[in-house]
């Protein structure tokens, strides 16, 4: 077990391809905030659904590129720090690489499977293949059908949040699951923050267990997914998502938020 500052210091480097995954809940906010505090730069941020934590990291100047399939403040509106970086280059210019949800999920699966690309039926009728060099086509050797092909995703480091780990470093998470397992298995290095350490990972319906040998660091971080929620531990803080809209619209207000974050380590 490590502290969060230690794990980020050792495993997240300037220029890395970094994936923070978690769908609806178990979003690794605490880890994202620690990356901001440590001043990481020139990151390629990967996430199927970038929301507040990536808006915050982009606004802090951590990212030079975003790879994603949908971005927004869920139930509220736009990501204004992301829009400012794209439109005005503040605080640094941001490149984007856009995919469909299915394309991103299949890219992680290919990366986790040790394959160079994934094949799917998708992207037909869109202009994404014209603008994204990680989307191509392949001809089925059996039917002759032309299918979409997407390059495998292998992040330098993937970070996820989970409910609990045992004392041997095995991690268990459950509830609405996204691509956390695939993101971890596809990555060169992996950090998992957890709500608690337990003596035994008792069975939970639908749970996924990540064995210790696929992880580089397990960090105890109670509340590490807030303001998103951790199923069985705490609820989503809807007020925080609404409040972020006002903060993120204004560079000065955001700068105050950023100063407070850096001065008040969790």
From TrEMBL:
Q: Which UniProt keywords apply?
A: Transferase
Is NADP a UniProt keyword of this protein?
Answer: no
Which Pfam families does the record associate with it? CoA_trans
Q: Which GO terms describe its molecular function?
A: transferase activity
Source superkingdom:
Bacteria
Entry similarity comment? Belongs to the 3-oxoacid CoA-transferase subunit B family.
What's this protein's name?
CoA transferase subunit A
């Amino acid at each position: 077990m490590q502290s969060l500052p230690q794990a980020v210091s050792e495993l997240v480097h300037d220029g890395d391809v970094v994936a923070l995954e978690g769908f609806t809940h178990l979003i690794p906010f605490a880890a994202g905030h620690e990356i901001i505090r440590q001043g990481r730069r020139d990151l390629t941020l990967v996430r199927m659904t970038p929301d507040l934590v990536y808006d915050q990291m982009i606004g802090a100047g951590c990212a030079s590129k975003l790879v994603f399939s949908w971005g927004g403040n869920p139930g509220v509106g736009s990501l204004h720090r992301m829009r400012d970086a794209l439109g005005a280059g503040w605080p640094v210019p941001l490149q984007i690489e856009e995919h469909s949800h299915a394309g991103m999920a299949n890219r992680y699966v290919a990366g986790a499977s040790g394959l160079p690309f994934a094949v799917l039926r998708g992207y037909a009728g869109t202009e994404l293949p014209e603008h994204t060099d990680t989307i191509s086509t392949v001809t089925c050797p059996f039917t002759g059908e032309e299918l979409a092909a997407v390059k495998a995703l292998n992040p330098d480091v993937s970070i996820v949040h989970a409910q609990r780990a045992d004392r041997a470093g095995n991690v268990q998470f459950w509830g609405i699951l996204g691509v956390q397992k695939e993101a971890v298995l596809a990555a060169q290095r992996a950090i998992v923050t957890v709500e608690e350490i337990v003596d035994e990972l008792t069975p939970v319906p639908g749970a996924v267990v990540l064995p210790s040998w696929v992880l580089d660091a397990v960090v105890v971080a109670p509340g590490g997914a807030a303001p998103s929620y951790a199923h069985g531990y705490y609820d989503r803080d809807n007020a925080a998502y609404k409040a972020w809209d006002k903060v993120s619209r204004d560079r000065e207000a955001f700068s105050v938020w950023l100063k407070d974050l850096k001065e008040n380590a969790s």
